[in-house]
Amino acid sequence: MRGVHWGQRLFSTAHRLLFWVLGACVALILSGCGGPPPLIGIENPKVAISDVPGLAEHKIFLATTRQPTEVAGAFFSNQRAESVGFAAVTVTIPPDHRPGTLSRARQLPPDPRKHYTIVEPVRYESDDGFIAALNSELAKRPKGQREVLFFVHGYNTSTTDSLLHLAQFVQDSGYHGVPVLFDWASAGKLSRYVYDINSALIARSQMAKIQSVLGQTQAEGYDVFSYSMGGLVVMEGLSELALKNQLTHTDRLKRVVLASPDIDMDLFRTQIKNVGAISDRMYVLISKDDGVLNMAKLVAGGVPRVGATDAQELAELGVVAIDLSEIDDSNSGNHSKFSGSPEVVKLLGRGLNRNQNFSRTYGAEQLKEMLIGLPISVAF
Predict the structure, then answer these.
(1) What pLDDT, in 10s, does the model give residues 218-271?
(2) What is the pTM of this model?
(3) Which of 202, 231, 275, 357: CA 20 to 30 A from 253?
(4) How far apart are alpha carbons 156 and 241 in whole angstroms?
(5) Computed over its alpha carbons, how large is the radius of gyration of the chain?
């Protein structure tokens, strides 16, 4: 009987891994061989950006744990750096952009009349250079809008990918402040899930450095917004800071938003205990029909992922759970509803642009008022 037991377990594990690999292969086929090219610093010599009327532009700052690269269009590689680097770019969005969509060039150079472009890349040699540039951008906003959106990307993401998606979110949400991307060293490949988990865990130790740098800026406040595996980076980073009594500058922290977090539910319970008081500023976007997280659950041996769990179960841990299960965004396997659904992205923009700090109860009540007419529920 013992041999049968272990044989069944081996078959079950093999079946789950085969299922995941097949899913990854299908996704690769659907996305096209090789994927779209990197775009950073690639301009079209025939179409000047300044000649395109109605073009939108967003300055995005980067804190990254990737190594720099000279590969055309890449800017940073998938290799892990020993320390945090700082940079900035400008992302342009074509005049005919529709909310919830992202028009990316499949061949170089991109046409700014039809595609997103990423131009004017600069790396800062010192913290002071980064802080000065960020303060300059903040100063362009009126008082009350001088805030930072600290965005942490997810699994299978290159620097180009994360910049494009953040720019789309800023554009569609109408966010008023300055976006700062935490570009941790994802391999940017579906087959490198374990590499990405380890990169996420390595990146958490740099949160203290980034917190210190952002704390020296003139930002009036900041929101932390993570997507997918980026939630693991955020929660592990906050936990480490809390355990070392280094969780400072929380007077300017407005909210921590975890969108579709790819985090082990048992691990999340421990993380919530670690971060203590700031858990009442946490908002978790979930969807039970999230195909990506349901696949991750299989790979993780059946342990539920936070982004696809029960809203009431999360509320009992002290966070506000926003259930998007009734919102359809099938283009992403229902994994990126925060940016793929025009209704959701506009809702998030209204919430992020409110400049007061919310208690858990007050924030949830405000959300319920904004959700009238939308198939979205809130548990708190």
Answers:
(1) 999 999 999 999 999 999 999 999 998 888 767 789 999 999 999 999 999 999
(2) 0.89
(3) 202
(4) 26
(5) 20
